[in-house]
């Protein structure tokens, strides 16, 4: 039983370490920072499951759907 509890707390600790330790450090990396700034400037909820309420993402979804529906086909 103690081993199971240790593994549980270790797993939870690992998740918290990545969320509050590694995650914020990744935001400051030079190739990720422009994307973070883009999301912050447009006040996009990056944790949302659906982005249809954001104009940029709804347009992108329409374009992707059209590209798939009307893709060139071999004859």
Walk me through this protein's architecture.
The protein is mainly α and 75 residues long. It has 2 domains: 1-30; 42-75. 67% of the residues lie in helices and 0% in strands. It has helices at 2-27, 33-41, 55-69. The longest helix has 26 residues, at 2-27. The protein is elongated and about 65 Å long.
How many helix segments? 3
Helix share of residues?
Answer: 55-70%
String of helices and strands:
HHH
Calculate the mean pLDDT score and round it: 82
What is the fold's blueprint, element by element?
Layout: H1 2-27, H2 33-41, H3 55-69
Question: Notable features of this structure?
Answer:
mainly alpha; 67% helix; 0% strand
Task: Summarize this structure briefly.
With 75 residues, this protein is mostly helical.
